[in-house]
């Protein structure tokens, strides 16, 4: 087995480790409320989280598509860049898990990819695609770069969640 083939297997192994850590990192965040309020037992919460985390990984490709294109200049994306991006995401996920901080594994992976590409480009910040506006007549979410794929959704998510939860709770209270 040549060194290049072995390195590909190492990168795949690191990706699988990231997925494992992503699973328990996100599962803990997703079941914390229902377990702490005793709606579900710990075992029930873990079982439900395991099933749906696996389903999400097998069914959806939106996050992979977002990460795979439009964030960095692909001329600097090599197997080493991918592995370093994954390792950065793994370290951040483990740190936030250990400290009990809520954190997005997807955002950790995107940050890891951007940081690794920046290092591979020798510190040339031009390697990062900051913003590429969508074509005329397309929705804003069709844009590329960190602004449209990371920053805007990251800022909008809690705000939209807040108002939707307020509306749904108001509806539930009116019904009951």
Short description:
The chain has helices at about 5-35, 40-60, 60-70, 80-100, 105-120, 145-175. With about 180 residues, it is an all-alpha fold. The chain folds into two domains: about 5-125, no CATH class; about 130-175.
Tell me the number of helical segments per DSSP (H or I, 4 or more residues long).
6
Shape: globular
What is the CA-atom radius of gyration, in angstroms? Answer: 19 Å
State which percent range the strand residues make up. under 5%
Structural category: mainly alpha
Q: Helical proportion?
A: over 70%
Largest sheet: none
H-E string = HHHHHH
Mean pLDDT: 88
Number of self-contained structural domains: 2
Unreliable residue runs = none
Distance between the termini: 67 Å
Number of strands: 0
Structure notes:
With 176 residues, this protein is mostly helical. It has 2 domains: 3-124, no CATH class; 130-176. The protein contains 6 helices and no strands. The protein is globular, with a radius of gyration of 19 Å.
Any chance you could write out the topology, listing elements then pairs?
Elements: H1 3-36, H2 42-59, H3 62-68, H4 79-99, H5 105-120, H6 145-175
Helix pairs in contact: 1-2, 1-4, 4-5
Key traits:
single chain; mainly alpha; 6 helices; 0% strand; globular
